[in-house]
Write a structure and sequence with these properties.
Low-confidence stretches: 1-11
Radius of gyration: 21 Å
Largest sheet: none
Mean pLDDT: 84
Structural class: mainly alpha
Length: 418
């Protein structure tokens, strides 16, 4: 029986890739949540609010790195299918060269907008500098990870994620213990990403050995724009509630919601590797066969795994909410326990939406209609929360309703669009 299960996993690329990435991603997120838990306990709710805000801002600015990673993954998977490894090297080196100039503009941009960010979010100047540094290094890291993901080298890709996670908690404990406080905790993130980037270069040595083959990259840029806006709108919807709560509620209450959001997002972060594994597999399958049935099977398997992860974790939240909150953030945060399973439900539906968006992009479906829907989703999220924010439960119900509507639309679009 066990041998049959093992053989089945080996023969199922989407399942094998998902399990590999889930394991390594869990190491990353366990370390990330240890980081969050440690800083939340040691620094207190008011200071943790600053870390939660920086994480949410980082997620938005890293839409660009996600776009780069997914675009590179898409075309590397196609080059892999055609065994055009010289083009992969050319794409990798060309991306690195462009990043040097872009990094200068990024740093200047963050300095210019820092007064606005510091005033609105009530944080200091140094966190903005750390945010700029993280953005630059993450862009370089996303180029490299995109190549590994496109090659379906999920073990090396996942191992690099775990290196980043371990770096976060190790550097955070060290710097906070030395008395650097919030700034030390944030600088730990910068150091962790730098270490991960250094490690990943060794995993790309076989690509560096290939002879570079030049090609026209214009179609990659054309593909990148709809990817950029898709992930921009999806990522905004993931953090808009946190920003608005930070704006409408006092610092300590906003810190409680930040903890709720952090734990609730475990659902999404646990299921996200399934979409990450599905993307290059579906993209390569489209190039090799373009068979509608086989492509649908890839989606069904990915959706099934996401379903089990999402509702499984939500059920755990429902049964053991007090224990989970106490372990991760301490007894001070126990007021959020009745809301935890509901936020888990929000993240489960959001994970379905994210998976469907990934699937459509892997098939090069880049119509403007979904982008309009994603934009409207963000707009109505702001409107709903702006109007109904007397309690956290009102905000969560708004998120459930809006995510459910978007899910129904994406199901219809996935089935009937060409």
């Amino acid at each position: 029986m066990h041998k049959k299960i093992i053989n089945y996993i080996k023969n199922e690329a989407i399942l094998q890739g998902s399990i590999t990435l889930i394991i390594y991603t869990m190491i990353l997120y366990i370390c990330s949540y240890l980081y969050q838990s440690y800083t939340g306990r040691v620094l207190g709710a008011e200071n943790y609010r600053i870390i939660a805000v920086v994480f949410s801002l980082l997620a938005i600015v890293l839409v660009s790195s996600t776009t780069i990673q997914m675009s590179i993954t898409k075309f590397v998977s196609e080059f892999k299918a055609k065994k055009e490894y010289g083009k992969i090297k050319y794409l990798l080196l060309r991306s690195y060269k462009k990043l040097v100039l872009i990094s200068i503009f990024i740093f200047i941009f963050f300095i210019l907008i820092s007064p606005i960010i510091t005033k609105f979010f009530k944080i200091g100047f140094l966190p903005i500098i750390f945010l700029a540094l993280m953005t630059i290094v993450y862009l370089a890291l996303s180029i490299s990870r995109g190549v590994l993901q496109g090659l379906q080298n999920f073990k090396s890709f996942g191992f690099n994620l775990s290196i980043e996670g371990l770096g976060k908690i190790i550097f955070a404990v060290l710097l906070v213990s030395l008395g650097f406080g919030v700034n030390g905790a944030l600088f730990a993130l910068v150091l962790a990403v730098i270490v991960a980037f250094i490690f990943i270069l060794f995993k790309l040595k076989e690509i560096f050995k290939c002879e570079s083959e030049k090609f026209d990259t214009k179609h990659i840029y054309n593909y990148s724009w709809p990817v950029l806006f898709t992930f921009l709108f999806l990522t905004l919807s993931l953090y808009l509630d946190l920003w608005l709560v930070n704006y409408f509620f006092p610092g300590v209450e906003a810190g409680f919601y930040g903890a709720l959001s952090t734990i609730g997002k475990i659902v999404f972060f646990a299921s996200n590797p399934v979409a990450q594994a599905m993307f290059p597999i579906a993209s390569e399958e489209k190039v090799l066969t373009n068979n509608k049935k086989s492509l649908s099977n890839i989606l069904y398997k990915a959706f099934g795994i996401t379903f089990l992860i999402g509702f499984g974790i939500t059920a755990v939240y429902f049964l053991f909410s007090k224990l989970i909150v106490a372990i991760l953030f301490g007894n001070t945060y126990l007021t959020i326990t009745p809301l935890l399973w509901l936020y888990g439900l929000v993240m489960t539906i959001y994970s379905f939406n994210y998976l469907l968006a990934f699937y459509n992009l892997s098939l090069h479906k880049t119509n403007i209609t979904p982008l309009i829907m994603f934009f409207l989703f963000n707009l109505f999220e702001i409107i709903f929360i702006w109007k109904y924010h007397n309690t956290f439960i009102q905000i969560i119900y708004s998120l459930i309703i809006l995510n459910s509507i978007l899910f129904i639309y994406l199901l219809i679009y996935t089935k009937y669009s060409k």
